[in-house]
Amino acid sequence: KKYLVQSSLVQKGKNATETAMATTVGLPLAMGVCAYLKGEIKMTGLHIPIDARIYKPILKNLAEEGIVFQETLTSY
Predict the structure, then answer these.
(1) What is the DSSP secondary-structure string of 15-44?
(2) What angle do CA 10, 27, 64 make, to 5 degrees?
(3) Percent of residues in the chain assigned helix, strand, coil, to nearest 5
(4) Using CA atoms, how far apart are residues 3 and 73, in angstroms rounded to an integer?
(5) Long-range residue pairs from 18-27, CB within 8 A, at least 24 positions apart, any chain
(6) Dihedral of the CA atoms 47, 51, 55, 57 (nearest 10)?
(7) Distance of alpha carbon 65 from alpha carbon 51, whole angstroms
(8) How far is CA 56 from its chain centroid?
(9) 4 — phi, psi (to 5°)?
(10) pTM for this model (two decimals)
(11) pLDDT of 3-27, one tens digit each?
């Protein structure tokens, strides 16, 4: 059996300054920097965030802020 995973994120901005784009781009970046400085991310150099060592701490922190992905699983 094969599965299709669909992941979505809906975020609304608060105003013209605190936009959804600022929240979904700037906040994860800041969280990544903080995680690196705290030693939670030990990788050095430039990496795209497809490595669990990068995205797991950031997704955890985003969830604490109420920003979560909704996932649906469909078999085909």
Answers:
(1) SSSS-HHIIIIIHHHHHHHHHHHTTS----
(2) 70
(3) 40, 15, 45
(4) 6
(5) 23/67, 24/67, 27/62, 27/65, 27/67
(6) -100
(7) 22
(8) 8
(9) -110, 125
(10) 0.76
(11) 999 999 999 999 999 899 988 999 9
